[in-house]
Each structure stands twice: as C-alpha cells, then as structure tokens.
User: Fold this.
Amino acid sequence: MSILKLENVCFSYGTKTVLEGVSYEFEKGKMYAVVGKSGAGKTTLLSVLSGLASPNRGTITYNGEDIRKLDKYRFRSKYIGVIFQSFNLLTKFTALENVELSMDIAGVKGRTKDKREQAMALLSSVGLEEDEANRRILKLSGGQQQRVAIARALSYNPDVILADEPTGNLDGETQKEIMEIFRELAEQGKCVILVSHSPEVARACDEIYELKRTKNERSRKAAV
Amino acid sequence: MYVVKNALKCIGRSKGRNILIGIIVLVISVSACIGLSIRQAAESAKEESLSGMSVTATISVDRQSMMQGMREGGGFDPSSFQAGMSKLNELSVEEMQVYAGAESVSGFTYTLTATLNGSDDFEAVTTSTQEEDTGTANGMPGGPGQEFGGMGGGKMGIGPMGTQGDFTIVGYSGEDAMTDFLNGTCSLTEGTMFEEGTKAADCIISDELAIYNDLAVGDTIVVENPNLEGETYTLTVVGIYQNSASTAVSGGFMRGFSTSSDPANAIYMSYPALKDMVDTSAANAQTQTDETTGMESSTAVRASAAGTYSFADVEAYERFEEEARAMGLSDSYTITSSDLTAFENSLVPLENLSTMAGYFLLVVLAIGAVILIVLNIFNVRERKYEVGVLTAIGMKKQKVAMQFLCEIFVVTLAAVVVGAGIGAVSAVPVTNSLLQNQIQSQESTKEQREMNFGRGGGFDMENLGATPSMDGMGLPSGTGQMQNYISEISSAMNFTVLFQLLAIGVLLTLLASVVSMIFIMRYEPLKILANRD
Ligand SMILES: Nc1ncnc2c1ncn2[C@@H]1O[C@H](COP(=O)(O)OP(=O)(O)OP(=O)(O)O)[C@@H](O)[C@H]1O
Ligand SMILES: [Mg+2]
Assistant:
C-alpha cells in the first residue's frame, strides 16, 4: 500500500498555477526521483507533500488518511523529514544543536546525553567532523550545511524523506555516500523522495517522476 | 521542556538585543521599585503609627457647622451666633461621663479650669509690658483675651463674657488626666502631688510662681474671684513643679493678652476641690441682666470643664462616634481627636509623595509597556525566518510563541531582580530626600499662607473654632503649631513591593508578548521561507 498518495492535486500561487491535476503514489521501501526543469514545481510539490502548502484541489493521503485531517505539526515533526533546497537551518545554532532541536520537536525519547550521541553519530555519518558539528551554521560551507540539513531530516527516523536537491552542493564522492544512506533507508522500509537535476541521482532511484510544466506556464513560455 | 532550553540558548545567542531589553526593563523596574517603595512606606508608616497609637478625643460644640448653618440661613450674624452659642453649652462633666460609658472608650479623664485673681501676697508672674491693661483684670468686656476658655467657655450657665483672672486653676480628675506630667513636660521638684480626688484645697504651683512670690511647700495662697471682690479662697501649696516647656510655650502673641495664659501662672489641684470652690461661688453669685443685650451675667467664678476620652486604637475611636450618637449626643456636638488630626497632618508630605509616586509609576509603566511592545514587535519581525524554520520542521506556533515569551520573561525577570536590588538599596535614601523636599515645600507654602494672613507663624486658621486646646487646661496652645511631619522612613522595600514588582514584570512581559504572539500566529512558514531576504 502506498504511504503517500496524490490525487488530482492542483496548486497555484495566486493566479499562477504550478501543479495541475497531479496524481501519484509513493510507496514504502522505495526511492523516487522527482525531475523536471527549473521552475517546474518540484519544490512546490514537496511543500504540498509535507503539508507546508495546502493544495487548492485534490487530496493527499498519508497511510490512507487525508493529511488535512492530520495534525500538520505532528506530521511534519515526526513522520516526514524534509531536506529543504535552502536548508532552513537555524543559523545561530550549531550543527549539533540544529539536529538535537529537531529531535526534541519530534519528541524523540531518551536521555539528553544519548540523544546527543545519536545526533553526533548521524552528523559523522553524513561526513561532518566533531569540530564542524559544534560549529555555528553560518561558519559551515554550503555543502556542510546541506549535510546538516540531511542529518536533521533523518534525526527522528521519519517514515518519509523529502529531499530537495540534497546533493546539489556536494562533490561526487560525498554524493555517493549520501545516496548510500538514502538507499539504506529505503531498504529499511522508508519512502525516500528526491528532487534532483542530476541524472546520476535519478538513475540510482527506483522510480522517476517527471514533473511537466503546467499548460499556462508552457503557453506563457511559448509567447515569449 | 525543550522550549525552555531553546529559549535559554537563544538568549545567549543574541546578547545585544537582550541586553538592550534588559537595560530598559532595569530602568523601568528601578523606577517602579522606588515608586512602589514610596507608596509602601507611606502605607506602612500610616499603619504602624496607627496600630501603636492610642487615640484621645473630645466632644465639643460644633461651631463650624453652626456657623455654616447660619451662613446658609441668611447671613452670619455674630450676635445671634453668640446667643445661639450661649444656649448651647459645652457638655458638663456629668454629661461627658455618660458617653464615657460607651463600650469603645477605654479611659476618660476630665478637668475643670477656672480663672481667678491673686491677692496682695500672691501675684501672677508677668513679663508683659501690657500688664496694666490685662493683668489687673479691670474688666474690659469683649476684649479678645477676656473671652474665657474659648467661645463656648461659659459652662456654668453664665453669660459668655467674663472677666479674665490672673491665674488659671486647673482641677484634674486624676493623675491620668495630667498629660503634662505624664509626658514629662512638667515634673514635681518639691513637696508632693495633691491627692487624687481630694476635696482639700491643696494645689501645686510652678517654680517660677513660687520664686516670684517667695513661696515654699506648706505655705498658703489666697485667690480671689475676679468678678466679685472679696470672694476669696485659700489654697495650700503642697508641691512645686517645674515646667520644662514653660519658656518655649509662653512666647508668642497670646502672652501679651493675659497673664493667665502664661503657664507659669497655672495652678493645679484636684477636680473635686476646684469643683467645690466653683460650686460655692455659683451658690453665692448674683445675677445681672444687661439691659441692652438682654444677656445675663453672673458674678460666679468662670469655669469650664473639658473631658478627654481615650481609646485603645483608631477603630475604637471611630466606633465611639456611632455609640455616642446612639446614646443621644446631639448633632450640634462634634467629636474630634486632635492627636489623630496631628497624625494625619504629619502624614501629609509622605502622602503627597505617595500620590506623586503613584502617577510617576503609571507614567513609567505606560512608557515601559509601549517600549517593550515596540521592542517585541521588532524582535519578532527580525526573527521571522527563525519562526519559519521552527514551524517548518514541525514546532507548533504556540510553542514558538512560548519560547519567545520565555526568552522575554527570563530577561525581564533577571532585570527586575537586579532592578529590585538597586531599588531596595536606593529606595530609602531616595524616598527620604524626596520626602525632605516635600516637607520643605509643604512648610514654605504653609509659611507663605500664614504671611498672607498677616501672621508670621500665628495660629492656625483651620483650627479656629475647632476643638478646645488639647492640653486639657484651657490654655491656648496659641503660637503656630510646629507640625511634626513624618520626615524619614527606615525601610521601604518589603515582600509586598517585591511581589508587586514581580507582578508588574510578569504583566509587562505578557502584554509585550501578546503582541509578538499575534505576529507569530499570523506567520505562515512557507511564505516566510519563500520570502526570505
Ligand atoms: N512563494 C511563491 N509565490 C509565487 N510564485 C512562486 C512561489 N514559489 C515559487 N513560485 C513559482 O512557482 C514555480 C515553481 O517553483 P518551484 O520552486 O516549485 O520550482 P522548482 O521546480 O523547485 O525549481 P528549481 O529546480 O529551480 O528549484 C516557479 O515558477 C516559481 O517562480
Ligand atoms: Mg526547487
């Protein structure tokens, strides 16, 4: 059974329609690649999936339940791990603190010390050293920030991982390591949805979903 | 819990902003603390003094309301006023004793004051150059000094006008009535006190009078009814007392009018003994009717009675009014307590200060609230992105708001605590110096007012026609009453102030936070994150 299901989802920013009648099913234990040209609405799709944006029409179900009926915050903090394209990390906090905070928000049980160790382990698994983990976000490079964002999304062991260009700032070597992590998660039964322009990443996935520009978007482009 | 943890972390991460907020709250709380302390000091000064205060009161004819009544009823006419007054006598000791039976009364003392002349061997102490006019008591009716015992003085059913004698003789109901001896103004230096309640004509005289007339304990003195030549009374001097306030009190303008108002010329004896004398005189008196005014005048010795009720506390005093009225005290009489009035006057500067402190407090709090609200709005707007991130990763808006509230609260609390400390240290000196200013201005306005009335430190206009003087001797207290203001407070800060301060801190924090909460609640994470600059 699919864990996330889109049925005829439409979304527009004001008059600008970005998603038009999107229907798709995401299953557990699989890795998906969402591809499409820049501005096609990939980020928007992830926003809709994570409950940050509500579709104008159509329904999204999580484990068969309409996500509008779920507690949005609980849904975002526990069941879905989002790696934002622009990271959205707390810049005043250290990498470790960012990870710890998301664990706290998700309500991960355990002693503070244990959770810290867990967070540290997670950060080192995405390739951050201890001294980088204890550094404030603004003092980390783009790639390091991206890895913190990945660690944060994984920290509370969500069922679904939504990653917006998770390897966009990473070198080939690191990208491979990260992809391995995602693969492992999929094998553990998670649903991993990646947005990527990289054919390499797309190839590593089980399914590829190509997002086309909406009609009015295309006609506007054509008119130019 | 993580909300609090996060809040603490955030405080540390934006020191600049929090120091700014802290300083503002600090200033507010120091000001508020001093303001509150002043109010508290005024309150507790009042309470403390009141709780430890035994109140005394007198019943007298309510002249003020009578005058007022007449004024309203078609012009004030002194002669009809006097006629009215003569009908309405001060209460007799017997009448006063009835009210002394009221439950609230804890003690009752009374005095009888008579005025008598000396004799060849016994003369009044005079230092006044006006001796010739007044000292010999040759009867100049209507002269201000000769209106004995105040306007309602003619107690014994005699016309209000009378001849003033050289001496004031006071008969005391008991030793507890002799306030001057109780408070140490006077003390016996030779001989013994006359016996309480004795009918024997024993008396004590002042050392000045003793020296002036070369008298010693055991000697006798002869006094004469100023209204009837030849009517004499012989008193035995059993003791000589010293009046430490004598020279101080005898200065001032009243002295010029009458030797009998000089405390040196006061003779003290027991009430029954003096009462005997006065009764004898009344029995022998001849009555004349003045043809022009139709007023009766008698040759009897003028005497006036005064009673002082004492109460365990202010509440008892306040109850007394009701009880006395229930016992049939007419509305023409008023119950007043000069020590309560004096006490209330002594609080005036402190209470003025307290009122000002109240306004000051309101202004400080209003400004403080506005500043805090504005700062909070800036704070939230500046941290919009943070709010966006936190809500995007699933932190509930309420929790974000809670976190922000926590931050402000901790900063405010810390500032309030430091402010309370600074306030506690500075409240007392600040209050005292403000109080000093207040007293000075109080005194200078009072002086100014006196000057306007043409009496540089003369007696108090407000007390005119109020109670007879409280020394129980009928001696006019005369000269400008030196008001004893409460001029110093010892401690201002207490738990009440601390509690109020904390309450203010909490209230300000909440008020300021409510605004920022509204902002947080309106934020949509997607929009914030999409619009990030
Ligand atoms: N908050 C917004 N308000 C209005 N229009 C928006 C907003 N966010 C995105 N858009 C528009 O919606 C369209 C889809 O944007 P989206 O970010 O989903 O594209 P994308 O596929 O993620 O592109 P990229 O590959 O460059 O990240 C774009 O044309 C964009 O300009
Ligand atoms: Mg995008």
User: Anything to note?
Assistant: Chain A has nine helices and nine strands. Strands of chain A lie at 2-13, 16-27, 31-35, 57-62, 65-66, 80-83, 160-164, 191-195, 207-210. The domain at 4-223 of chain A is CATH 3.40.50.300 (Rossmann fold).
